[in-house]
Amino acid sequence: MFVGHEKTVSYVKFIDSTTLVSSSTDNTLKLWDLSECSSHVVDCPVQSFTGHTNVKNFVGLSVSDGYIATGSETNEVFVYHKAFPMPALSYKFNSTDPLSGDEVDDAEQFVSSVCWRNQSSTLVAANSMGDIKLLEMV
């Protein structure tokens, strides 16, 4: 059992064979090192990631080559590297107005899904308006 989040855990993903990351509605991602488990209860994550907002919605979680992507209730995508607690980058996910085609900032929208392309720096992200974007991490 892993103890460390204060609210609902919505996602858990393996980064490699001994490391996993968890996402919670307590506004954090936590990194856990399974090789340091000496008992059935692990109560100290090796890293906590903050910067994104997640208090009620499932915002997605994806991992690739030490990078961790998550959505945010601020309609942004955040990318962390497992070695650093702060975001490596973020991208404001503006929505497209269906009538004008212009990009607009809608504070009520959130990024709901993220997925890395295998062995690539390309990330696909979707939000609560149904918009899907391909993003390239450079």
UniProtKB/TrEMBL annotation:
Coiled coil: none
WD repeat copies, ranges: 2-35
InterPro entries: SPA1/2/3/4, WD40/YVTN_repeat-like_dom_sf, WD40_repeat_CS, WD40_repeat_dom_sf, WD40_rpt
Keyword list, A-Z: Repeat, WD repeat
UniProt record, GO biological process: photomorphogenesis
Record PANTHER family: PROTEIN SPA1-RELATED 2, PROTEIN SPA1-RELATED 3
Protein name, entry field: Transcription factor WD40-like family
Organism per entry: Helianthus annuus
